[in-house]
Amino acid sequence: MKPALWYDAKLSLGWSALLPALGLPIYAALTRWLFLTAPSTASPEMLTQTFVILLPLVSALSAAHLMTIEQEEGIAELRASYPEHPARLPLVRGMLALGLLVSNALVGLLAFRLIWSPLDTAAILPALPPTLLLTGLSLLTGRLARSYWVAAGLALVYWFFELQTRGQITQALFLFNPVWPKTGISPALNQTLVSGAGLIFFLLNVLAEEFRGEWRARRGTFGAG
User: Fold this and answer.
1) Model-level pTM?
2) By residue range, what is the domain housing residue 66?
3) How many domains does one find in the chain?
């Protein structure tokens, strides 16, 4: 008998999760085609800029459906009848979201390696904190809204908002600070805050059902009173 985790992975890793991973390879191919006369090696600055801007969106879109599968497939009531801890589902889906994040980064690196020749893989590290934040936000939104389109749409809007405002509103939490550093904001502080916000979103996704259960219990108590 196959473990329950295997079934969760099989249910979760559909086209909605896998198609966004093509974003970085497609971009690598387009830039190589557009800049045929450029050096064959991607500079660290180019890699950092590409991954900081694109990897968060790619991973957020990959994770947007993970907390909405049961609603979309019409099996929410069936899943609720399973004898499992309420935190198990969001924990497993959170791990799958992190797995997709890593997979998207590796697929992008492989594409750039094949198309642009040798590269400095450490240059993509600044992209991990903003990717963690936007992926966590997408996961939590899907959990609360029970809709892939709401989760994907909010991630896209937030990403575009940050691109347009260049951190004028979010300041120390600016997603793209490694590319467009804000004056007076420490890069280390920015990376720490952005990573922390992402981890909080992942944690809230796990705790959402517990909060919902407490709210329902209190509503029932007030109603009875």
Assistant:
1) 0.84
2) 4-224
3) 1
